[in-house]
C-alpha cells in the first residue's frame, strides 16, 4: 500500500476523532506509542513488536492528517534514493553514526 | 511509493549504518526526531514541519530494518480498513478520545 493510501485510510477511520483532539493531543498519542515500541523492542514477542510498529506509523499518519501534511510527499521530497545530507546511496556521511 | 518500497530505499541508503548502530541506538535517533517533530509543530514553518515528518518515518523504517520487521505488513495486519479495537470505519470506540 502506498504511504498516501495508508494516510487516507487513517483519515477515513480516525479523522473525526483526530481533528477534534487536535495536534497536541494527537502528538501525545504518538509519543505514547513510541514509548510502547521501545518496550516491545526489549522483548521476544514478534507479534507485539509488529503491532507497536503499526501503531507508530498509524499515529504518525493521523498526526500528519491533523497537521495537513502529505506524509509521502514529505518523505520523498527529503529522501528520494539518496541521503539528503551527503547526496549518496549508500550514505557516506563521515559524521553520521 | 509503497511503504515497503520506502523501507527498502532506507535499507539501501542506511542499513550499513543502522545495522552497526543496532536497535537501541537507532531507537534513540527515532526518539530525537519525534522530539524535533514536536517542536516543528509549534512553528509556522511548513517546510521544516514536512522535513520532520520525513525524518520520523525514515527513522521508523530504519528501525524496522534493524528489528527485521516489515512495516507495511505490520501496519496492514493491524489497520486494514477498520479500527482494530471496534472493527468499524469510521471508528466508533466509545473510550477512544
Characterization of the model:
The structure is a homodimer of 97-residue chains. Chain A is mainly alpha-helical and 97 residues long. The first copy, chain A, contains 3 helices and no strands. Chains A and B meet through helix 1, helix 2 and helix 3 of A and helix 1, helix 2 and helix 3 of B.
> What is the count of helical runs of chain A?
3
What is the approximate shape of chain A? globular
- Helicity range of the residues of chain A? over 70%
- Ranges of chain A with pLDDT <50 over ≥5 residues? none
Q: How many strands, what sense, and barrel or not for the largest sheet of chain A?
A: none
Of all chain pairs, the largest interface belongs to:
A-B, 56 and 56 residues
Counting helices, strands and paired strands, the structural category of chain A is mainly alpha
- Radius of gyration of chain A equals 16 Å
Strand percentage of chain A lies at under 5%
The separation of the N and C termini of chain A measures 31 Å
Total number of β-strand segments of chain A? 0
Question: Could you tell me the mean pLDDT of chain A?
Answer: 95
Oligomerization = homodimer
String of helices and strands of chain A: HHH
Could you provide a short overview of the structure?
2 copies of one chain form a homodimer. Chain A is an all-alpha fold.
Question: What labels describe this entry?
Answer:
homodimer, about 100 residues, mainly alpha, 3 helices, about 70% helix, globular
Write the layout of secondary structure elements.
Two copies of one chain form a homodimer.
Chain A (H helix, E strand, L loop, with lengths): L2 H38 L5 H22 L3 H9 L18
Helix pairs in contact in A: 1-2
Amino acid at each position: 500500500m502506498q504511504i498516501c493510501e495508508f494516510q487516507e485510510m487513517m483519515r477515513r477511520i480516525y479523522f473525526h476523532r483526530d481533528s477534534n483532539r487536535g495536534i497536541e493531543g494527537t502528538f501525545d498519542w504518538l509519543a505514547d506509542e513510541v514509548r510502547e515500541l521501545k518496550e516491545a523492542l526489549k522483548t521476544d514477542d514478534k507479534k507485539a513488536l509488529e503491532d507497536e510498529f503499526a501503531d507508530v506509523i498509524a499515529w504518525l499518519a493521523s498526526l500528519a492528517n491533523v497537521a495537513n501534511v502529505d506524509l509521502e510527499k514529505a518523505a520523498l521530497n527529503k529522501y528520494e534514493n539518496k541521503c539528503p545530507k551527503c547526496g549518496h546511496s549508500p550514505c557516506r556521511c563521515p559524521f553520521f553514526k
